[in-house]
């Protein structure tokens, strides 16, 4: 590695290795469930294969391959006719076989890309490869962190969960870009239905960071492979969120800048992101590929995907759907964005827009429903099986059987807080729109009961009418239309 002059201006260069757990029913090479049971005991959701017992053989999960093909299509990757599995050999207690089944020189996805928006500028991030592999077990450092624990426990329940490792080109030029990329990637994976972002540890990121001399950056922003290989970099592990990635990388960039400023050299090393302390800590010098002694997995034949891949459809992806929402429903960019933030939201909006005016549907789904859900830290998936109730609520408003104000401020909120259907809330709170007889009676009563306000009105005090409207609204439980009440009162008083 070259000596790095301290004084030279440098460009931040980042490449990501993103591990995502694929949503399949069973593990990638055995029939064990991927779904943790409530209060599950460690090492119970296992079998001889995922425990790595001698003689146990792997059988590839078709669902995992389908998910990988969907991802490949979504990132415009080449999916080769034949894809193969290798053993990656290393000793670590979370890996009972002492090797990980993964893909090496024939990964299932090659040379893809993903477009992200950073400060409303489109940026295309190259994806070198994406391959299938098995998740190791998990370690629990007893009594503290990896550095302070007295001993470590191992749990193989996670071992064998299907993973897709998505490796990007070193195309990022700032920590903020990685955050935008991860958000976009998660959105796409969620649309594909291959990923559950709410599951703990379903997304894990290793981030490679270096500071490349400005003189190596071409006018078009590209950097030669030689220059990238020539500079020492740190690989930061243990990042588990978009925000974590941005924070860890911001810390690491500053750390490297300080090292260079002091006239020292950046080590080629693996560092650990300590989220609680907000720092990266040196773990070990970085492994080289040759350390892993990759060789073909003899127990899994080569996998032919060429004929099969055309039969695996993918849904309309978020960018395309946003565009279509703008055109088809006349939505502005912000509403279209909100309404396509997850596939569940977009599907629900389209369902509502089929029945009502798109503008009304957009207001109800984007502003009212999502707003109230956000406020409660809930998401549309929490109310997925109650969407008919929300449609009935909108129906009641559209048919003038419920005022907008009551619908938004009382019924919707009670539906979420009390888990009741709209009819129950309306009945309990007496919110049905008052019939004309009831309103007329309340108008007469307000005039009879408030002679002072009536004489004030006749003396030209306009404020008095507002008071009387208030009385009627109160008497009808807010279910009358204030404008209409105002008119009725004036008619009575002036007549
Ligand atoms: P290795 O085999 O050492 O892990 P790879 O070529 O597989 O290296 O790249 C691993 C990751 O490192 C990729 O995400 C890639 O984009 C990134 N990377 C490569 N060179 C650099 C660099 N100079 N600075 C930052 N990231 C880099
Ligand atoms: Zn198993
Ligand atoms: Mg690598």
TrEMBL record:
It comes from Halorubrum lacusprofundi (strain ATCC 49239 / DSM 5036 / JCM 8891 / ACAM 34). Allows the formation of correctly charged Asn-tRNA(Asn) or Gln-tRNA(Gln) through the transamidation of misacylated Asp-tRNA(Asn) or Glu-tRNA(Gln) in organisms which lack either or both of asparaginyl-tRNA or glutaminyl-tRNA synthetases. The reaction takes place in the presence of glutamine and ATP through an activated phospho-Asp-tRNA(Asn) or phospho-Glu-tRNA(Gln). This is Aspartyl/glutamyl-tRNA(Asn/Gln) amidotransferase subunit B. Residues 347-493 form the Asn/Gln amidotransferase domain. One of its GO terms (biological process) is translation. Belongs to the GatB/GatE family. GatB subfamily. PANTHER family: GLUTAMYL-TRNA GLN AMIDOTRANSFERASE SUBUNIT B MITOCHONDRIAL AND PROKARYOTIC PET112-RELATED, GLUTAMYL-TRNA(GLN) AMIDOTRANSFERASE SUBUNIT B, MITOCHONDRIAL. It catalyses: L-glutamyl-tRNA(Gln) + L-glutamine + ATP + H2O = L-glutaminyl-tRNA(Gln) + L-glutamate + ADP + phosphate + H(+); L-aspartyl-tRNA(Asn) + L-glutamine + ATP + H2O = L-asparaginyl-tRNA(Asn) + L-glutamate + ADP + phosphate + 2 H(+). SUPFAM superfamilies: GatB/YqeY motif, Glutamine synthetase/guanido kinase. Its EC number is 6.3.5.-. Heterotrimer of A, B and C subunits. It is an enzyme of class 6 (ligase). Keywords: ATP-binding, Ligase, Nucleotide-binding, Protein biosynthesis. GO terms for molecular function: asparaginyl-tRNA synthase (glutamine-hydrolyzing) activity; ATP binding; glutaminyl-tRNA synthase (glutamine-hydrolyzing) activity.
